[in-house]
Specification:
The protein is an alpha/beta fold. The protein is built from nine helices and eleven strands. The protein is 38% helix and 18% strand.
Length: 292
């Protein structure tokens, strides 16, 4: 019988969100390991209580190290404690309900792939979600060009992968929100098979936190040598990063990624509802993606 372990990197999660994961998780899965990257005492004490009741495993990192490092340390701890065949990685904001994880694992084996990525867009209407269509398309086109993976949603945090690939993810070297993209690059370098599966999800915001985009683009650039990127691709990724750091509105020519169009990244500044990544003191600023 396949053994399945679950990993949830947690930052500023509510007690309700944590309880939803525990109650919705398939009963034949191992208790989830929560990698708590948070210094908020109330949540920490609540999770320690759940650990003592054997409802969860807990790795508490009591200072902020960013999502990728919390994920890497969580994976390391999970692989040491569990002999699971498959690791399911949940979105850090618990946006995809955990009851969907059993079919995700079933599809992983049915398709005989090494990793399966949740697709947040296939099951929802994209009417009025121009930002999501354009933004997801930008990242998917870059990932497809560099890896060959045909994914509508390359950055979904909910995914499942075999133990051997999980061990390779212990070498993650990006920061913050770049982990999902870097995992795809590692999989491609090792000739792993990757597919996707549609998931129910909460509606996404109409803009994206600037540092999320920065971290993902830097993760791509960080593998320029391994992926034998052309100077043109390197220059384009570097240009995107330079404009993001200036918080400027700019256009990106996608022809370098094999797509005959451009996309505009419009800086919209501070936005209500933008979830900050690392600390409440950073500006909660964002971009929206549009057709120019």
């Amino acid at each position: 019988m396949t053994k399945v372990a679950t990993l949830l990197p947690a930052f500023r999660l509510s007690i309700e969100e944590i309880d939803n994961v525990i109650t919705q998780l398939p009963k034949d899965f191992e208790p989830p390991l929560i990698a708590l990257n948070d210094d908020e005492d109330t949540i920490a004490q609540y999770l320690y209580g759940l650990m003592k009741a054997h409802q969860i495993r807990l790795l508490h990192i009591p200072y902020q190290v960013g999502k990728t490092e919390a994920l890497r340390q969580g994976l390391k701890s999970l692989l040491e404690e569990s002999d699971a065949d498959v690791i399911v990685q949940l979105d850090g904001r618990s946006k995809q309900p955990a009851w969907q994880l059993a079919p995700l694992v079933e599809i992983l084996y049915k398709q005989q792939v090494d990793m399966i990525i949740g697709d947040r867009y296939a099951k929802q209407s994209m009417v009025g979600q121009d930002h999501r269509k354009a933004g997801a398309g930008l990242m998917s086109n870059m990932v497809r060009h560099l890896t060959g993976y045909e994914l509508l949603d390359a950055a979904c945090g909910t995914r499942a992968y075999v133990r051997e690939l999980a061990a390779r993810f212990l070498h993650l070297r990006c920061f913050g929100y770049g982990a999902e993209v870097e995992q795809l690059l590692i999989a491609a370098i090792h000739s792993c098979k990757v597919s996707s599966y549609p998931l129910e999800t909460k509606r996404q915001a109409d803009s994206t936190n600037t540092e999320k985009i920065e971290d993902s683009v830097f993760a791509l650039l960080n593998y320029a040598n391994e992926l034998e990127m052309s100077d043109t691709v390197r220059s384009t990724l570097s240009f995107i990063l330079s404009q993001l750091k200036r918080r400027k509105t700019f256009d990106v020519d996608l022809s370098v990624f094999g797509v005959d169009r451009s996309i505009r990244l419009k800086y919209v500044g501070v936005q209500e509802g933008i979830v900050d990544a690392y600390t409440d003191q950073l500006p909660r600023d964002a971009y929206t993606a549009l057709k120019p």
